[in-house]
């Protein structure tokens, strides 16, 4: 991928679950953490729900990026800002749909859930 335009680019980092093979964008799950390990000069991904990290159950997904003929592998993919916004909006829509389905399974509407949540505060 050549960077011919001067638009703002943002980093996207993906991890792959070694057991299931499922890949996801770091930060798209509330249990994701990404830590820059001081002194060691590397990033570590952790899933706070299952207590696994990039030294065990998860691996960073490498992406080829660079000038034609000089493809380098990085764990960070740089994309234009507008592309990142679209991606995160899509992830948010999918998350909201899944959350709504979970509420339907237990027999409560999203409106009722919000009402109960406000009463608890």
Describe this structure in words.
This protein has 121 residues and is α+β, with helices and mostly antiparallel strands. The chain has one domain. Helices cover 30% and strands 33% of the residues. It has helices at 81-105, 110-120; strands at residues 9-17, 23-25, 32-37, 42-47, 52-53, 58-60, 63-65, 72-74, 76-80. The strands form 3 sheets. Strands 1, 2, 6 and 9 form a 4-stranded antiparallel β-sheet that branches. It is extended, with a radius of gyration of 18 Å. The chain starts with 8 loop residues before the first strand and ends with a helix. The model has no long low-confidence stretch (mean pLDDT 82).
Write the layout of secondary structure elements.
Elements: E1 9-17, E2 23-25, E3 32-37, E4 42-47, E5 52-53, E6 58-60, E7 63-65, E8 72-74, E9 76-80, H1 81-105, H2 110-120
Antiparallel strand pairs: 1-2, 1-6, 1-9, 3-4, 4-5, 7-8
Report a brief summary of the structure.
The protein is α+β, with helices and mostly antiparallel strands and 121 residues long. The protein is 30% helix and 33% strand.
């Amino acid at each position: 991928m050549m960077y011919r335009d001067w638009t703002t680019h943002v980093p996207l980092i993906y991890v792959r679950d070694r057991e299931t093979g499922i890949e996801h964008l770091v930060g798209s799950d509330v249990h994701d953490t990404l830590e820059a390990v001081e002194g060691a000069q590397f990033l570590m991904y952790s899933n706070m729900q299952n207590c696994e990290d990039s030294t065990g159950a998860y691996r960073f997904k490498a992406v080829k990026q660079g000038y034609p003929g000089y493809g380098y592998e990085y764990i960070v993919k740089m994309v234009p800002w507008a592309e990142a916004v679209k991606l995160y909006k899509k992830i948010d829509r999918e998350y909201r749909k899944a959350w709504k389905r979970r509420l339907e399974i237990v027999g409560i509407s999203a409106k009722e859930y919000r009402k109960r949540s406000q009463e608890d505060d």
